[in-house]
Specification:
Blueprint (H helix, E strand, L loop, with lengths): L9 E7 L2 H4 L3 H7 L11 H16 L3 E4 L17 E4 L2 E4 L10 H10 L7 E4 L11 E5 L2 E6 L5 H11 L4 E6 L16 E5 L2 E4 L6 H9 L3 E4 L12 E5 L2 E5 L3 H9 L3 E5 L2 H5 L10 E6 L1
Parallel strand pairs: 1-2, 4-5, 7-8, 10-11, 13-14
Antiparallel strand pairs: 1-15, 3-4, 6-7, 9-10, 12-13
Length: about 290
Amino acid sequence: MTAVLSEVDRLARVAVKHPRDAFIDQQTIARQWQDLRFTAAPDLERASREHDRFVEALSGVAEVHRLPRDETTTLDSIYVRDGSVVCDRGLILCRMGKSQRVDEPAAQERAAAAGHMPMTVCGRIEPPGRLEGGDVIWLDGRTLVVGRGYRTNADGIRQLRVLLGSRVEVTEVPLPHWHGQHDVMHLMSLISPIDHGMAVVYSRLLPVPFREWLLERGIHLVEVPDDEFDSMGTNVLALAPRRCLMLAGNPRTRAALERAGADVIEYEGTEISVKGGGGPTCLTRPLERMP
């Protein structure tokens, strides 16, 4: 299997988790949604229809692997990116910064062992390290940027450096306090690569040194307007270079992407994205991309 050392090459294999396996039933939703800080209780039937259409868009380019139900996880397990990182040797299991999500990496390990994620586990983040996949972005095959915030700590980044070795440059990016430690703030809340040398960003919250570093590397920044940050305009999944999948309801960001030469596909995600604060990158764990 080709390593995922890119966020933008053509998606070939990807893991997802259906709402019927993450949310289970309406009773489980009722018990969990407030503790997990969803903005409202998702409707399981509508969520299932949204996710089916979301997977249809993925299936047009990639082989989709479905993670099974696991009784140890919560509604948040629909956001499969966060539980692991993929490198050229396989799967690195994360250690979650959100306490309610601590069982997700082990659930992904069981899914991998059962063949639902065709990857070999090559490492794991151990206490006191914390690392979530939404903070980890490949800029190219030798360059990884990692958000240092409430979900990912310095020791988690240190361990990731050791696991990846000297062949990968790992750059730490400090994240803002924003709405506090209980908010969903990952590095991918602020930046999503969409092509080699191009990324969607919300510059107001980018650290100045990081933004300057991106520009020095020749990366063109597609700016998300203020009124589309909360609606996850910055969270865009590249299906291939400049072929983007994004949450509906961000028309100005879509127009900016199209002006930059991107082909944009939208999905309706009130139940699977808006209420839980997770866009298309959160809903997917890319396993293989092809140049």
